[in-house]
Amino acid sequence: MELLFAKVMDHLKKAESVIDLRFGHDELAHEWRRHLALERIGQLAEEMACVHEVMLHRVFFLAEREAVNMSVGRRPSAWCWYVMGSIGRREPTVWTDQDHGILFDCAKGEEAACYEFVRHMAAIGTKMLYEAGYPYCSGYVMPTNKRWAQSLTDWERQLSSYVDGGWPSDVRFLFIAMDMRSFYGDAKLAEAARRALFAAIADRPPLLARMGEHVSFPPVPLGWFGNVQTERWGPHSGAIHMKQSGYVQITNALKWLACLMRVPAATTAERRRALAEAGRLPAALAADIAKALDVYYYVRLKYGTEAEDGREYILWRALEREEQKQLKQAMRTAKRLQRFVARRVASIHE
């Protein structure tokens, strides 16, 4: 792995164009297969996250430089590019899609000009990421969506509306925003925003309970007798969706538990460790969660090899017998965690 890490990282740090970055991304896709092994998945996950972070950092640097050179609007006195989704949680696959946003602060009279600069820079950075091999987010969680590129004042106003609303779409937004992690620029802005978000949810038991109920969905596709419920119709018949087969359920459950216990950590691993160390998550369950996440990550890396729609669907019969066994166990763990959360939700209602 040292060769993969050093080779790709060295190229990315010197990249001066999107072409250079795409070459590095393709090199990563080519090289990592030779090192994939479940027993080393922790090391691979860490190095994969580091490579992506170097790549995104370079894109954001180039986007900022181009926006400054074009003299559009006014660069804010304080701003931060933050990441969410799998990169925010530090568990990206090779061809992870875009989940990021921009938060800024400035004098009241400069806000319009700062918005002009931020939106221009966001358009440049989002396009660069796409050309470097990061698909556009299907849910439009990118700073080209005004929801994810805001002044601190507007962000706080928006957060209040979602926290007070509590509609299903609001809950979805809150779960996405809970992953926000400072990445480029003034780190204090995004860190403070995430901590404020966790506190706002934790201080509202009805909202917290509603979000906890959300963790029960979608159901893990594992029947009472251990039968895996694959897609029955359409182009993915006979396949399972790897993110919806227990992975998303686990990551959302850990987000919710971290919020319940007021642990505003940004990554899945940090949340799991903090909850276990505080005695808020049974040691045996925490260990099983770690194993399950390793299995999901391994299978997604091994079979989701292309940067295209549908890469999360994997034919069940294409998996090796041992992989099927390991995935079933991971699904059982996801269902246990959902039940654990459900009991905590019930205690809020009492």
TrEMBL record:
Residues 206-344 form the DUF294 domain. InterPro entries: DUF294_put_nucleoTrafse_sb-bd, GlnD_Uridyltrans_N. CDD domains: NT_GlnE_GlnD_like. It comes from the Bacteria. This is Nucleotidyltransferase. Residues 40-168 form the Protein-PII uridylyltransferase N-terminal domain. It comes from Geobacillus genomosp. 3. GO terms for molecular function: [protein-PII] uridylyltransferase activity. It holds the Pfam family DUF294.
